[in-house]
Every structure is written in C-alpha cells, then in structure tokens.
Amino acid sequence: SDTLHLRIRAGRITEQLYAVLIEDISEQRRFEAMRRDFVTNVSHELKTPAGAISLLAETITDAADDPDMVRYFSGRITKESARLTEMVKRLIDLQKAQNSQALNLSAANVSVLKVVREAVQENAVQASNKHIRVNISFDGTPVAPTAAEAAQRDEHGDATVFLDEEALTTAVKNLVENAVRYSPEHTTIGVGVAVAGGKVTIRVVDQGIGIPADSLDRIFERFYRVDPARSRATGGTGLGLAIVKHCVQECGGTISVWSREGEGSTFTIELPEAKNAADTKTEQAPAG
Ligand code: ADP
Predict the structure, then answer these.
(1) Superkingdom of this entry's organism (predicted)?
(2) Atom 23 of ligand 1, nearest CA residue
(3) By 3-state DSSP, what share of the chain in percent is helix, strand and coil, each rounded to 5?
(4) Whose CA is nearest to atom 12 of ligand 1?
(5) ipTM of the predicted assembly exceeds 0.90
(6) Which of 1, 90, 179, 195 could make an S-S bridge to 206, C-beta 3.0–4.6 Å?
(7) 127 pairs with which residues across the strands?
(8) Mutate to test the pocket of ligand 1, among 41, 182, 222 (most ligand atoms within 8 A of CB)
(9) pLDDT at 284 over 70
(10) Best CA proximity match to 115, nearest among 220, 180, 191
(11) Consecutive H or E run containing 254
(12) ∠ CA 192-196-197, rounded to 5°
C-alpha cells in the first residue's frame, strides 16, 4: 500500500505542475501580445509626426524664397515637433507609472489641496486661452486658487493622504488637462475635494463633449481615443488616462468615470485618508 500511496501523490504533483506550466505560458503569451501591440502603436504614433516633419522640412527647402511659405511651414514643423516631444514625455510617464521602481515611489503625508492647486495651475494657460473657469472646492465650499490666497482668507480644512505626491499630481494634472481639452470655450470645470468615512474623493467635473456610453470602459486603455482625429488635433496622445489609471493604482486608490455625450464628464479618484493626518504640516520639521 506504501507504493500505491506514493504513486498517487506523484500523479497529483505532476498534474499540478502541468497546470502551473500551462498557466505560466498563456500569461507569458498574453504579455508578449500586449507588448507587441504596444510597440506597434508607439512606432505608428511616433512615425506620424516624424514623417510630417521631414516632409515639411523638404517643402520648406523648395519654398525658401517665399517668406510667407517659410513662416507657414516652420510653424507646422514647430507644432509637429511639439507633438513628438509630448508623445515621448507621455511614454516616459507611462513607463514610470507602470514600473513603481522606476517611479521611485516615496509615500508621505500629502496635502490634497496642494496637489489639486498645482494640477490646476499647470493647466491655467490652456484653460484661459479657452476662457474656461476652473473652480476648486473643498467639501462643497469654494477654495482660494493658491495657498497664499487661502492663508490670507484664513481658510481652514484640507484632506491628507499617505502616498507618492508626484504620482497623484500626475493623475490629477492629466484629468484637468483632458477636461480642458474636451470642453468648449466659456465653460466651467470644477475640481472638488471631499472627505467622508475615511475616504478622500477628488472629482474633476467638466461641461465638455462627453464620452459615448460604449467607449466608457475603453478610455483607460493605452492609445484608445474616442475620436483619434479630434484627439490628435487637440494635442492628445491616447496615453493620458492610461497614465492616470496606473498612477492612481500606485497610490492605492480607484478611478471611475461618469459621462454623457453633450453634457459632460466626471472623473472620480477615491483614496484612503491618511491615518495620521495631523502630521502633514510637521513632516518637514527636523527630527530630534
Ligand atoms: P488623449 O490624449 O487622446 O486625451 P486619454 O487617454 O487622456 O487620451 O483619453 C482617452 C480618450 O478619452 C480621449 O481621446 C477622449 O476621446 C476621451 N476623453 C478623456 N477625457 C475626456 C473628457 N474629460 N471629456 C470627453 N472625452 C474625454
């Protein structure tokens, strides 16, 4: 009976090993396919502006004695190279967000209002070019756009989270950037921060073009765009929300979206509130 017992156990082990091996290979295949898709997409996205630049440069040489033409073509070259640079910057961001070691994550107590103000500030020029107002609020109450103004108004209240500040700033910055990009002129964007039940919510609400229902579950994919032509024309790369998703995940949070075409979109980040929120202001204090 000893021999029989052994054989059964050996069989089981083999069976398990077999199953594990199959699993491993299919996982690897899926990863390989994803990587291949990604490389194809990246090369395509980079080739388009790169090709345009060399074509425009050739044309400019032919039109060298017409100042108007030279001005026109160099303007286009500048635009295409800006796009190329943006694309590469985004790819590096995405790479970082997918690889927490490269991101060099360092968690600390972070002021959510500080992050939100920075994200809004980073998009201030684009917003004002489109006459778009960006309002910040905390638990429903309007908040001064800068920390200095807030101090003057003697404002109180903030939310504190324990995470990597750069990752959260990148996420919120990208959401505000999209809100501005996909909103018509003279509209308002709201960025709201709220705390309830140990959870911090950051909401970016726009009155923009909205997202069709059947695209909603795809917009966080890399290179997915509802309208590629429009996104490209407005400087989009299709990478913004993929970056947002990864950053929010690295922060231990979740991201969700509500949207209706012609009405607008709301992106909501939910994060756990820092346990020791009171330490935010003293974190810079020298130890001992
Ligand atoms: P892109 O660089 O093209 O903006 P994203 O990954 O940031 O790429 O977004 C993916 C797609 O989701 C966009 O191309 C756009 O179609 C849609 N989208 C994202 N944010 C918004 C928004 N606030 N309003 C309307 N559509 C949006």
Answers:
(1) Bacteria
(2) 179
(3) 55, 20, 25
(4) 219
(5) yes
(6) 179
(7) none
(8) 182
(9) no
(10) 191
(11) strand 254-260
(12) 155
- For residue 108, which amino acid is it? A
Look-up of token digits 């929300």: 241
pLDDT digits (tens, 9 = 90+) for 218-272: 999 888 889 887 777 777 778 899 989 989 998 999 999 999 999 999 999 999 9
Encoded tokens for 60: 């400019």
User: Please, where are the H alpha helices in 63-123?
Assistant: 67-98, 100-103, 112-122
Give the Å distance between the CA of 23 and the centre of ligand 1. Answer: 35
User: Identity (one letter) of the amino acid at 281?
Assistant: K
112 burial class (0-12, 13-18, 19+ CB within 10 angstroms)? Answer: buried
Question: Whole-angstrom Cα distance, residue 178 to residue 244?
Answer: 11
Q: Tell me the CB-side half-sphere exposure of residue 69, using CA atoms within 13 A.
A: 11
Distance 226 CA to ligand 1 centre (A): 7
pTM of the model: 0.77
Q: What is the pLDDT of residue 13?
A: 54
Nearest-atom number in ligand 1 for the CA of 231 is: 3
Q: Which residues line ligand 1 (CB under 6 A)?
A: 178-179, 181-182, 206, 208-211, 219, 224-227, 231, 236-242, 265
Ligand 1: which residue has its CA nearest to atom 16? 226
Write down the mean pLDDT value for the chain: 84
Measure the N-to-C terminal CA separation of the chain; round to a whole number of Å. Answer: 69
- Is residue 134 a contact partner of residue 123, using CB atoms and an 8 Å limit? yes
User: Nearest residue CA, atom 25 of ligand 1?
Assistant: 210
Residue 270, strand partner residues? 201, 254
